[in-house]
Design a protein that fits this description.
six-stranded antiparallel beta sheet, Umud Fragment, subunit A, alpha+beta, 23% strand, rod-shaped, 195 residues
């Protein structure tokens, strides 16, 4: 009896850990995004290239805070969404005031030359980098990948759904057809004797 109780207790611990891991992985990106929005009125991005090394490494998580173009200064690290949808996180190298509009020349710290394309009116400045969380972007990218999702969700299946499925199959295998009541057959007339 104690071994059955120990097995149930171990199963509950495993189920709890599996659910905790899945929730942590799934909520990771949501949690950082919410934190960035509440604390900095910004958003979280994962850096996927080495163009800003050594300041920001590939795989780092950055929080960007919304900032109007007119408040930008040379030396700030900004994230720009190009007209083609591409995101670039580079340092402001030069601000070129063109009447009422400001063209921005950017450069990656690891790049020898400024970016060939000027940040123009068609490009959207998403914001300036407020803080960096080293290497944590790799965790976010992994959790959002197919292998990461499988690793985070598979334990729930193994510890919750699989035992229930096995229990159901075992119960089906143990079912027997109900026994029919045995009704005695009347003895043949030659064997009957009357008293």
């Amino acid at each position: 009896m104690q071994s059955a109780t120990a097995i149930r207790f171990a199963r509950r611990i495993c189920v709890g850990l599996a659910i905790l891991c899945a929730l942590a992985g799934i909520g990771l990106n949501f949690g950082f995004s919410t934190w960035a929005k509440v604390v900095y009125d910004g958003q979280v991005l994962v850096i996927t290239s080495g163009s800003m090394e050594p300041t920001i490494d590939s795989g780092d998580l950055v929080v960007i805070q919304t900032i109007p173009r007119e408040n930008l200064t040379v030396g700030q690290i900004i994230t720009v969404r190009r007209a083609n949808g591409e995101l670039i996180t580079h340092r402001v190298e030069k601000l070129d005031r063109n009447g009422t509009f400001i063209n921005i020349i950017t450069k990656g710290d690891a790049n020898p030359d400024p970016d060939p394309d000027v940040v123009s009116a068609e490009d959207e400045v998403l914001g300036a980098v407020r803080t960096t969380i080293p290497h944590f972007g790799q965790v976010v990218l992994w959790a959002e990948s197919l292998p990461g999702r499988l690793v985070l969700i598979l334990p729930i299946f193994v510890f919750v759904a699989l035992p229930e499925l096995l229990r159901t199959l075992a119960a089906r295998g143990q079912r027997t057809t109900p026994a029919r009541p045995v009704v005695p057959k009347p003895a043949p007339a030659s064997e009957r004797h009357e008293s």
